[in-house]
Write a structure and sequence with these properties.
Blueprint lengths: L3 E8 L5 E8 L9 E4 L3 E2 L5 E6 L5 E7 L5 E3 L3 E4 L3 E9 L5 E8 L1 E2 L5 E4 L3 E2 L5 E2 L1 E4 L5 E6 L3 E3 L5 E2 L3 E8 L5 E8 L1 E2 L4 E5 L2 E3 L5 E2 L1 E5 L2 E8 L3 E3 L5 E2 L3 E9 L4 E11 L5 E5 L3 E2 L5 E7 L6 E6 L3 E3 L3 E4 L3 E8 L6 E7 L1 E2 L4 E3 L3 E4 L5 E2 L3 E3 L3 E8 L3 E3 L5 E2 L3 E9 L4 E11 L5 E5 L11 E5 L14
Parallel strand pairs: 4-11, 13-21, 23-30, 32-39, 41-48
Antiparallel strand pairs: 1-2, 3-5, 5-8, 6-7, 6-9, 9-10, 12-15, 14-18, 16-17, 16-19, 19-20, 22-25, 24-28, 26-27, 26-29, 29-30, 31-33, 33-36, 34-35, 34-37, 37-38, 40-43, 42-46, 44-45, 44-47, 47-48, 49-50
Length: 459
């Protein structure tokens, strides 16, 4: 519609009419107003108020965010809690004209720039200091932590592992909340020990130590002032060995190990059952010991003899060597000698003679070289005797067997001769008479050794 004077006629259904006159005038004036930011957004005052000043009653205002053009309010004042760009649209309701004004809301928020660090709690360091790095000044600290811990120090000392919270506030009232995890390493090294037993064969042992963890020191102590810093020391004495292990965190573990000893030598005794004689042709040799049943027994003897039996029989004289090796290696030795006695009794006999003057011969034998066990004589006419020197009354050969107590026999023979032949004689003489009262008898014999009664003559 153009500027000017106009007339309008209104006709009703009944045909009646009414005429109106009006003038179209020009009104294109935009509204006027001013946007004022009353506050700056800070940490302590986290809100700013925007005010539209100079608004007329016919004005309508709407506030928008420049970020997403969302409608924020329709009153002359607007509270905002974020910095950024905003704009206000004011409409004059009388002419529909609008005016848009932009405003930038600033802030003064500078949070403290703080970094935290600390060490690990160990057996060496039972408390640690918290290290705070910052370029800010005039900071206020409010610490809380495990076990009811509180502190207002910038670098507090803590002795308990866990998560610590701190609120750091600067003079502008801006606060930074941080967390610090304090760790602990109080785990002791683990130890596993194994050893063995010292024996005559095993004069030294290497102790096996299995250690887990980061180790800084190893300290062994033991019998006879034993000390070592080796993980697996070699030892030569029985007794209790103690290991103290220190980790890099200062935590220690200890363990004892008992090293036993078996250096007992078995008692040994070897014996031979008898002496080899003419009756005993074999003897038994026995090696006795009180060692374990698993001990190794070995014999060496004459003519390359060897045996691994504890006892055996032999017919060889000489020295036998016994070796007994028990499981602990404590070897013992013994010897036994097998003797022989094959000596016979020496017999000396003398032949004899019997006659009418000596009808019995008494054997005068001599025996040398042993103890007589038995004597056996045999001779003529089934003669038998067990006497050393029997009476022999018959001529002939007598056999003698003499046996010693070793069963060895010797033999001899003697001969007994005899002479029982009567002399052959002839007698002759005169007759007796009154005149011849004595006569001579003449004996004639072929035996020159004939003996006559006294007063008698032999011719």
């Amino acid at each position: 519609m153009l500027l000017g004077q106009y007339q309008v006629t209104l006709t009703a259904e009944n045909g009646c009419q009414q005429v109106y006159d009006f003038i179209v005038a020009i009104d294109t004036l935009s509204p006027t107003f001013t946007v004022v930011q009353n506050d700056t957004i800070e940490c302590t005052t986290n809100m700013a108020t925007l005010s539209a000043e100079g608004l007329l009653p016919t004005y309508e205002i709407k506030w928008y965010s420049s970020f997403d053009n969302s409608l924020l309010g329709e009153s002359p004042e607007l509270d905002v809690d974020n910095s950024g760009d905003y704009y206000a649209v004011v409409t004059d309701t009388t002419n529909g004209c609008q005016l848009v004004q932009n405003v930038n809301v600033s802030n003064d928020i500078n949070y403290p720039d703080v970094s935290l660090s600390t060490d690990t709690l160990t057996c060496l360091e039972t408390s640690v200091d918290v290290q705070v790095e910052t370029t800010d000044s005039d900071l206020v600290f409010d610490w809380t932590g495990p076990g009811g811990f509180t502190s207002d120090m910038s670098n507090p000392t803590v002795s308990e592992a866990g998560v610590y919270q701190v609120e750091v506030t600067n003079d502008a009232g801006c606060a930074t909340n941080l967390q610090l995890a304090v760790y602990e390493d109080t785990e002791s090294p683990t130890i596993a020990l194994s050893g063995g037993e010292l024996t005559c064969d095993q004069q030294s042992i290497v102790i096996l130590a299995t250690l887990e963890g980061e180790i800084s020191d190893i300290d062994w102590t033991g019998p006879n002032n034993f000390v070592s810093n080796l993980e697996q020391p070699e030892i030569t004495d029985a007794g209790t060995y103690s290991l103290l292990v220190t980790g890099t965190n200062g935590c220690t573990s200890s363990q004892d190990l008992l090293i036993t000893e078996d250096k007992v030598y078995p008692q040994i005794d070897s014996e031979v059952s008898d002496t080899i004689t003419c009756e005993v042709t074999e003897v038994q040799i026995v090696g006795n010991h009180d060692g374990p049943i698993t001990s190794i027994v070995s014999w060496l003897g004459p003519n390359g003899f060897s045996s691994e039996e504890s006892s055996f029989t032999t017919n060889q004289i000489g020295i036998y060597y016994l070796e007994v090796v028990p499981p602990n290696g404590c070897t013992v030795y013994d010897t036994v000698e097998v003797y022989e006695d094959l000596e016979t009794i020496a017999i000396q006999v003398a032949n004899g003679h019997i006659d009418c003057n000596a009808p019995v011969f008494s054997a005068g034998n001599s025996y040398m070289g042993g103890v007589i066990q038995s004597i056996i004589w045999t001779g003529p006419n089934s003669f038998e005797s067990n006497e050393e020197n029997p009476q022999l009354s018959e001529a002939g050969t007598y056999d003698l067997i003499v046996t010693g107590e070793n069963g060895c026999s010797s033999a001899a023979s003697l001969i007994v001769t005899s002479d029982f032949e009567t002399p052959n004689i002839e007698l002759s003489g005169d007759s007796l008479s009154c005149e011849n009262t004595e006569v001579e008898i003449t004996v004639n014999s072929d035996n020159s050794e004939l003996s006559l009664p006294v007063g008698r003559r032999r011719r």
